[in-house]
Specification:
By secondary structure, the protein is α+β, with helices and mostly antiparallel strands. About 40% of the residues lie in helices and about 25% in strands. It folds into two domains: about 170 residues, Jelly Rolls, CATH 2.60.120; about 55 residues, Arc Repressor Mutant, subunit A, CATH 1.10.10.
Length: about 240
């Protein structure tokens, strides 16, 4: 079976006038494909992606099929599909369902895993479970997804999405997640000074991590520990002073 993008999978069976799909790319996440959609009657034929497929139901119910198993999934359900995983989906109730999805590539999630563990990733990271229920993570994912879609505050969106993906791997990834040794108080200070000098600009986590000389995940923890605030919250404070 040829792997396809989610937009191609959706176009294979056109949606009706009552249904809505929005696709876009997130440049700060390696041009990651993103989607928000409401489906009433639309059914996905079995297909797979070269990327991970990660998402959560906001409302309604979907019948999801993965590895020969079919499950009814509703609000609080998470989809954590590995690259090449054949899956399909159809509405599970008459009113259909609304959900949000992202399709990060292997390099993006490998980078997140390396940031969290402080070790190089050998091989392809993967999720041990594909369909599960985690209301807390699902809600946090929806929030991060909306921030990426709105695109008004890049740093806040990056913090939210980067954080929720790291937590997904910490809970359900195939690798053991162990935070690196906590160091870098002066590094966090360098990041703080950089924000103070450039607070009116759009600053990304990768940019700040380069200034601090540490990983993005480590920077957020070190910054909060030293200043009791996130980099984004500090930037916001500087802007309104």
């Amino acid at each position: 079976m040829q792997n396809v993008s989610q937009a191609e999978a959706t176009e294979a069976i056109p949606v009706t006038e009552r249904e809505k799909t929005t696709f876009w790319r997130a440049p700060r996440f390696r041009n990651m494909e993103c989607m928000s959609a409401t489906f009433i009657t639309h059914e996905f034929a079995p297909h797979a992606h070269d990327s991970f497929s990660i998402g959560a139901i906001e409302a309604g119910c979907q019948i999801a099929g993965v590895r020969g198993e079919r499950e009814y999934t509703g609000p609080g359900a998470l989809y954590l599909l590995n690259p090449g995983e054949i899956h399909d989906g159809a509405p599970g109730v008459s009113e259909g369902y609304r959900y949000r999805m992202i399709y990060p590539d292997i390099e993006l999630l490998s980078g997140i895993l390396e940031d969290v563990t402080g070790r190089a990733v050998q091989g392809t990271p993967s999720f041990a479970r594909q369909l599960l229920r985690d209301e807390e993570l699902a809600q946090d994912f929806h929030r991060a997804h909306r921030l990426v879609e709105e695109g008004r505050d890049q740093l806040l969106a990056e913090e939210a999405m980067y954080g929720v993906l790291a937590r997904m791997f910490a809970r359900y990834g195939s690798a053991i997640i162990a935070p690196p040794a906590e160091t870098g108080r002066t590094a966090a200070g360098r990041a703080r000074d950089y924000i103070a000098g450039n607070f009116s600009s759009e600053i990304g986590l990768e940019e700040l991590a380069g200034v601090a000389g540490m990983s993005r995940a480590h920077l957020i923890r070190a910054f909060r520990r030293e200043f009791f605030i996130t980099p984004h919250a500090f930037q916001t404070d500087m802007r309104i002073r």
